Amino acid sequence: MKTETKRPQTLREVEMEVEAEGREWTRQRLQQRLQAEAGQHGDVFPLGGQRLVHRRTRPMQLNTGVGMIQLEVLYGQYPADQRWGCPVREHWGLTSHQQLSLALEDKLTFTVTATSTYEAAAALAQKGESPLPRSPQLMNASKRKTLEHQSVTGLRQTTTRQLTTASSPSPPRSPSSRYPPRCARLK
C-alpha cells in the first residue's frame, strides 16, 4: 500500500486559493445584504412612494465586481400610471433589464477607457481576477458606456482646445498665404 504524500502548495497557490475564498464570501455577503434591502424596500416605488399592485416575485441576476448575484425581487404595477416595473431596480438606478451593477460598470468603463481595446481590458481584468461580463449584451453595455465617456472626454478636450485658441490671437498671415498658389488652383 503506497501512501501518497501531497506536495506542499506554493505561496502563489495558497494566496490565490484564499483570495478566491474571500471573493466568494464577499459575494455571498453582498447577496444577503441586497436581498435584505430588496425585501425591506422592494414594494414601494422610490419616486411616487406608492406600493405595488398585482405584485409578483421574480428572479433577478446582477453581475457585480465579486461575481453573479441571484436575488428574488418584487415586480408589479405602479398605481399612478398603471405601468409595470420593479421598484428595487428603480431604487438602485438600474434599467429594466440591466444585469451589470453600477460599480462594476464604472470599473469596466475605466478599464476599457484606459486600454486601447476591449481585449486588452479583458486581459487586464483577468489578471486582476475581476469578473468580466461574458455575454455580448453586457459587453455592449460596457462599450456603450465607454463610448459615452470618451465622447464626453473628447468634447471637454475639444472645448478646452477651442477656448485656448479663441483666447490667444492668431499670428497675422501674409497676403500670399491666404490663397493657394496659382498652379494648385489649375489642377
Q: How would you classify the helix and strand content by structural class?
A: alpha+beta
Report the strand count. 3
**What spatial order of strands do you see in the largest sheet?**
1-2-3
**How many helices?**
7
Question: What fraction, in percent, of the residue positions are helical?
Answer: 40-55%
Series of secondary-structure elements, N-terminal to C-terminal: HEEEHHHHHH
Approximate strand percentage = 5-15%
Structural Rg: 27 Å
| Main sheet attributes: strand count, strand direction, barrel closure | 3 strands, antiparallel
Label the overall shape: flat
Instruction: Identify low-pLDDT runs.
Output: 134-138, 158-168
Distance between the termini: 94 Å
What's the overall average pLDDT, rounded?
A: 75
Written description of the protein model:
This protein is α+β, with helices and mostly antiparallel strands and 187 residues long. Helices cover 54% and strands 13% of the residues. It is built from seven helices and three strands. It has helices at residues 11-41, 87-92, 102-114, 118-127, 136-167, 175-178, 182-186, and strands spanning 53-64, 67-77, 84-85. The protein has a three-stranded antiparallel sheet with strand order 1-2-3, with helices on both faces. Helix 3 crosses helix 5 (136-167). The model is unreliable at 134-138 and 158-168 (pLDDT under 50).
